Amino acid sequence: MRLRWILSLPFILWFYTGTIAWAQPEASIEAKTRKTLHSDTASSSSPKSLTFTASTDQRFFFFGDTRNDNDRRVPVSVYGVRAGFLFPSQHERPNLRGGRLASFKAGAGFYFINQHLDEPGLLPNTSESVTRHLRIATVYYERYLLRRKAFEVSMPIELGYGHSRYERDEGQSNKHEVARGVFLPLGVGVSAAYQFPTVRWLRPLHWFGLNMLTGYRFILKKDIPDSQINYSGFYISVGPSFFLENLTADIKYWRQKRKRNKLN
Do the Cβ atoms of 233 and 185 come closer than 8 Å? Predict the structure, then answer.
């Protein structure tokens, strides 16, 4: 019952927010006077070009084929990286407050898993435990739904292409491949992020923050059709976050400030 409620969150948020604005996690530039503030943040509040963004991504997936002795799913660590662009908003959004505005984020990611499966019989015609190696390339579209100062909510949708390889261990230096295949995953989730505030004497603080992601992955095509392998399942990610776009914005700000000082 709890899983159904979690999975319904993306659609509840989508319905609630409707056509509200979306936000990009980038703090506005501080200044001593209102006039200077307006001058320094004009390009940040209304970006005219794409902004590059990238981050590491660790998630815990609850695959349908990975269970404990009580037949409960156990988390599997999935590591990866994501990179893409923040696309500027074309219209003013009343639901966005503070920071550079962006309607959505889009890009690509890469993930990998090396997992030992001590469950004989998952693959057809095998009775031994195996080790699986997964490599997954994804494209994603992440729509921003809500922003309040340094807090934001977004909805990532991902489509991937995965390659799997299964090996039977026959000693440390002798491994025998028993199967390989291609699968197509589709994921839908909800992400919430908080970036630390900007401190005048410690601007790098707002390069960092916290992020929480939860969602569900569906498998559109199985890699081994006759097996009991099942990658569908709930996933979650909670941990620190690095906002690359805040770093690049500060570099631009410092360059502009240095030029003004030279002119003066």
Answer: no
Q: What is the DSSP letter of 122?
A: S
- Residue bearing the bigger pLDDT, 27 or 183: 183
Note the pLDDT tens digit of each residue in 72-88. 888 999 999 999 998 87
Residue 58 to residue 113: CA distance in whole angstroms:
11
Sign of CA dihedral 200, 210, 113, 169: positive
As given in the structure block, the two tokens for residue 111 are 């993930």
Q: Which residues neighbour 187 within 8 Å (Cβ) at sequence distance 6 or greater?
A: 138, 156, 157, 158, 159, 160, 215, 216, 217, 218, 235
pLDDT tens track for 237-256: 988 888 888 888 888 888 88
Residue 9 one-letter amino acid: L
DSSP 264: -
Contacting residues for 246 by C-beta, under 8 A, at least 6 apart: 25, 26, 27, 195, 206, 207
